[in-house]
Write a structure and sequence with these properties.
Protein name: Helix-turn-helix transcriptional regulator
CATH architecture: Orthogonal Bundle
Helix content: 40-55%
InterPro entries: HTH_HxlR, WH-like_DNA-bd_sf, WH_DNA-bd_sf
Number of helices: 5
CATH topology: Arc Repressor Mutant, subunit A
Largest sheet: 3 strands, antiparallel
Structural class: mainly alpha
Keywords: DNA-binding, Transcription, Transcription regulation
Shape: globular
Pfam family, one: HxlR
């Protein structure tokens, strides 16, 4: 791997083209279909699980829970539990999550605009 080691022994930068670099797993996590949609859905405000599930059509409870755990583990989202009966859990973007979501929002916007052209290409 061609990265330099920074504070606490972690690489100071990644090289996603290097198969041994941890950037590969980060890339895999943030570019999954469900992760992109979760991150973009959270861009404007925190949401509870049920609201996220309604906002992201087609995602199963299991897949949403798995995606949220992965994104939380990578530091992209925060999970806040309010000790009520029953407990209320909400999810929000961290600073790291807001940074990646700026890029993903542009990707989603571009895809939405280009759908007609893509569908036309598929039909050819």
């Amino acid at each position: 791997m061609s990265t330099q080691v920074g504070q606490a022994g972690y690489p100071s930068a990644g090289d996603a083209f290097d198969s041994a670099c941890p950037a590969r797993s980060v890339l895999d996590h943030v570019t999954s279909k469900w992760a992109v949609l979760v991150l973009v859905a959270l861009r404007t405000e925190p949401m509870r699980f049920s609201r996220l599930r309604r906002a992201i059509g087609g995602v199963s409870e299991k897949m949403l829970a798995q995606t949220l755990r992965t994104l939380e583990g990578d530091g992209f989202i925060d999970r806040e539990v309010v000790p009520t009966t029953p407990p209320q859990v909400s999810y929000s973007l961290t600073e790291l999550g807001r940074g990646i979501t700026e890029h993903l929002t542009g990707l989603i916007d571009w895809i939405n605009l280009q759908v007609p052209e893509v569908l036309a290409a598929r039909a050819r």
